[in-house]
Structures are given as structure tokens and as C-alpha cells.
Design a protein that fits this description.
Length: 113
């Protein structure tokens, strides 16, 4: 049974940083790409970044240069380091495998002064 547990969200001022974590279980983590998505209030969920099993990474244009995705296969964990946060980054952040399966509960990120 696939399980995804996101954590690390919170309230941060514009320009601040957060690191999100996602612990995965129920599948062979090291063999799968992993993605981060986000869903802002009143908007559709959007893809933010992914990291493949080869550790190749890709980002949506709006976060390039500010966000960094990484993984620790020994811990079945994928991370999202978010720097220089903007109010537009406010959303619930979710991780998932590539391609996506069941969703976790997400973690709330709020960027506000």
C-alpha cells in the first residue's frame, strides 16, 4: 500500500525559506521518479518539480532558481528546499511518484508578512 507523508510546511515571510520532506512507503522508492505538486486556494493542482531515479531534475518556470528538489533513497525521502519565497507560493504542497498514484494529506505553506 503506497503511503506518502509530507511535512515541513508553515508560515514564512516573503523572502524566507522552508524545506519540505516527504517520506514514501509501499513501493520501490529508489526506482521511481518523485514529484512535488501544489494547490493554491481556488486553483487546480499544479506540478512544481520532479527528480528522476537518475537524479535528473526539472522545475516549473515560476520556481526555477528558487526551489531545489533532492532525494535520499536510504530514507525513502524526497525534499523540496524553497528559498526566496513569494506570496504566490502559498499553497498545499504534495509529493507523489512519477507517474502519480494515491495522494497524501499535503503540507500547508503560507507566505505572508
Amino acid at each position: 500500500q503506497v503511503q506518502l507523508v509530507e511535512s515541513g510546511g508553515g508560515l514564512v515571510q516573503p523572502g524566507g525559506s522552508l524545506r519540505l520532506s516527504c517520506v514514501a512507503s509501499g513501493f520501490i522508492f529508489s526506482s521511481n521518479g518523485m514529484s512535488w505538486y501544489r494547490q493554491a486556494p481556488g486553483k487546480q493542482r499544479e506540478w512544481v518539480a520532479h527528480i528522476l531515479s537518475t537524479r535528473a531534475t526539472h522545475y516549473v518556470d515560476s520556481v526555477k532558481g528558487r526551489f531545489t528538489i533532492s532525494r535520499d533513497n536510504a530514507k525513502n525521502t524526497v525534499y523540496l528546499q524553497m528559498n526566496n519565497l513569494e506570496p504566490e507560493d502559498t499553497a498545499v504542497y504534495y509529493c507523489n511518484s512519477v507517474p502519480p498514484g494515491n495522494w497524501g494529506q499535503g503540507t500547508q505553506v503560507t507566505v505572508s508578512s
